[in-house]
Amino acid sequence: MTCYRSRDNWHSYVKYSLSEAERDEMASHLANCPECRSIVAIIQETLESLAKKQVILYPPLDIKINVMKAIDKNRYRENMVSTNPFHLFELKNWGVSMIAAGILLFALNLTTLNPGSENGQMTELHTELGKQITIPFDKMSQVANDALEKIESLRLSK
């Protein structure tokens, strides 16, 4: 294990949260690397120091009652009845957006009902609208594929 790779596991080693193989690999690295060994020792000392000085605080038993008494209930009653006329439009916009999304999904799924499609293949839309719909999905698919390939290459390089 090299120092740049062991750096990610210092805290896990101190907290005993590494797997047995990783723990053995880290122990053998620490035996040969005085720099990492000193850093792990500092982390362990800090953890022990914090554990010794830990103070458990208990809130007063009547804290909930005191907080509830301190709340000005009249202030919140006034704000419950909104005088903002745009508040109603916000809810309407959500409804319209949901209906539009449903119609779009329904229209996209109609292509599977086309009797010309064979073996469950979707028909291609050669219209301008069809091209505008597929371009963003193709780009998202390409970006997702590139990201997965990078993750896989990183996983294999470890």
TrEMBL record:
Pfam families: zf-HC2. The keyword Zinc-finger applies. Transmembrane segments: none annotated. GO terms for molecular function: zinc ion binding. Keywords: Metal-binding, Zinc, Zinc-finger. Residues 18-37 form the Putative zinc-finger domain. It comes from the Bacteria. InterPro entries: Anti_sigma_zinc_sf (IPR041916), Znf_put (IPR027383). Belongs to the zinc-associated anti-sigma factor (ZAS) superfamily. Anti-sigma-W factor family. This is Anti-sigma-W factor RsiW. The lineage of its organism: Bacteria, Bacillati, Bacillota, Clostridia, Eubacteriales.
